[in-house]
Amino acid sequence: MLMIQQGPAAGPKLKKIIDSNFCDGIIWDPRDLTSSRINQYIRENIEYEDLVKVMEFKQYYQQFDNSDKKKLKDYPEFPKELIDRAFLRRQENLEELVHNNIDFQQSVELDYLCTPTFYIESFGHRIIERVLETWQKNITYMNSHEDSNPLFATMVISENAFSNYDYINEFLEDLEDFSEELEGVYFTVDRNEMSSLRHKFDLAHLTNILQFIYDLKVMGFKVIVGYTSVEGLLYSSVGADYVGTGWFYSLRKFNRVQKGLPPEKAFGIQKKRYTSIKVFSEVPLQEAIYNVGARSHPIILDNCSLDRELILETPIDILNSNDCYLQHFEEMYKYVQIFDSLPDVSDKTNKVLNLLEEAETNIQLFNNLPNNTYTINSGHIKQYSDAIKSVKEANFI
Amino acid sequence: MFSTELELQSCFHNLLLRNATNNEKIIDEFNARFGNVDIVKVTNNSNNLLTVEQANLLSEFRYARIVSLLHKRAVRTLNYIVDISGYDINTVKYILKKLILTNIVNEITPNKYLIKDQFSFPFLEFTSYEAKLHDWKKAITQANNNKNFSAYSYVVFPDYMAKKLAIKKREYFKSNNIGLIGVTPDDFTIYLDVKKKILPLKRNVTLIASIAKFMLLEYEEGKKLTI
User: Fold this and answer.
1) Most buried by CB count within 10 Å: which residue of A146, A172, A188, B150?
2) Side-chain half-sphere of A156: how many Cα atoms within 13 Å?
């Protein structure tokens, strides 16, 4: 299922996506929206009633001294001290973190509750002990208050933590102790690098992320993966129940640097893009569609509402950015629904492999169009395909 | 001949400058909507000028975008502008208020807008040049993007490279309507010329913002183009 990863400038974008029914849920971000504003959205649109609602309080912003906390710093429930080793050593701090986190989430109507969110550099680091301890405290607190809301263990994990599966195995063993009391795991991968190739992934990391999702599912957890783009379909194929995606690039690819105080020059130019699973990519509209013209349409356009404007050659400046963001949701939702309709992981992973194969063919077709000088990068297609094949082989899927 | 793109760009800039007429201006690294264009030649064919305030506003994309949706004769309502622009209503109201204050837009009756009769854009024509040593595909892609606001769009290479491209890759340039120029330290040659692209201002936000950005540069330098 597809969730909106809410972020900045939400107003008209949320309305468009929700009114179009291109999502199953929403992950609220109190860093950009206050709880009263969130409640106002819920009150004003009946469509929210049918959506799965989650809110992440993002305490990990307090793990970084210079992070840009935006509205988080204004909430009395948000930790005031830097969350470092000294902070985490004190039991009362962990308890306060848990109480405040639950109190804060009670200010909004939610379907799943989250534990406090920590940033995890490596599954081998000692912070893992504190994280597990905090989850236990969270469960104990909810039990003592007869709060039976489903709880998700929530964390942001550095992509580098997926370089080796040994520590992950140990973590999963510890996690088994929580399988009765936790509903699921909600995690986001911090993609570390700022590659200009938007879909590029390290093969070993991606394989281990997919294996992690698969293992969590085998253990009986529900899985939400936050901040994803087209690779969210790979996560769906190995069993993730929900994948979150958003309108801006920063909501489709989590990067720690972007969450702090990045230098302005680190930002590229925001381009209007078209998400096409036919090429398994978010392609820039100007270069891949407008410059190439009608020849690009049968290869890239995938029967979305925006296609009409593109076929009519509406000037790119006039295209409403929100309609471009909506197109991303329309395309993702269409495919997430296909995966949701397939009975098991074997069918889902076979489907994603088929899509990747078709994408490879379509990219070659596009790149070889006569007199076309723009190339859609296809490097990630093989990475995605190899990662899925590895997981299938390792788990006899 | 040229060891860096910057060297090529700088040489070509000087050659263009040598040939420039008194209503032409040569600008390096012109900040168009989609990134800096290596060199832009701006030809000014009118007496109209934007005021500094008008240029300041219209150089911002969101102001240019709202203006691009308005007309002098056909009235546009607030709801129409909100709907087409995708901006929220408060943003649109704020933008319109500033456009009214700078004498670009008129609110003829509440929430109904026209471009002011007295307001006109200066008639500027942009010719853009992308300088590259080798990567001709990237050069053509960038030159294609430049067509959003340029009447003519060229790529510029060291002369030996341009000669080769003119023979071997001619169709790429022709089918994309991109011109090809070869440069030596002393002169340049147009190997493949382009057809002029007529660009109406209507609904062309990049062109409107580019005109305003150029006017701002002129004000910043404290001098105007001679007509």
Assistant:
1) B150
2) 21
The pair of three-digit structure tokens given for residue B220, joined into one six-digit string: 């910043």
Q: Are residues A142 and A262 in the same domain?
A: yes
A183 and A250 inside one domain: yes
To 10 degrees, what angle do helices B205-221 and B61-68 make?
130
Which residue ranges make up each domain of chain B?
5-46+126-192
Q: What is the pLDDT of residue B223?
A: 55
Q: Is A302 on the interface with B (CB under 8 A)?
A: no
Query: pLDDT, tens digit, for every residue of A36-46?
Result: 999 999 999 99
A348-357, B32-41, B185-194: segment of lowest average pLDDT: B32-41
Neighbours of A237 (CB within 10 A): 29
User: pLDDT of A258-269, one tens digit each?
Assistant: 655 343 444 456
Interface test with A, best of B34, B79, B147, B178 (most A CBs within 10 A): B34
Smallest Cβ distance to B86: which of A287, A315, A320?
A320
With 90 as the cut, is the pLDDT of residue B170 above it?
A: yes
Residue range of the domain that includes A325: 273-394
Average pLDDT over residues A172-183: 94
- Helix A165-176 crosses helix A127-144 at what angle (to 10 degrees)? 20
**3.40.1350.60, 3.30.160.20, 3.30.1490.20, 3.40.50.1370: which CATH number matches B5-46+126-192?**
3.40.1350.60
Looking at the structure, do residues A290 and A154 belong to the same domain, yes or no?
A: no
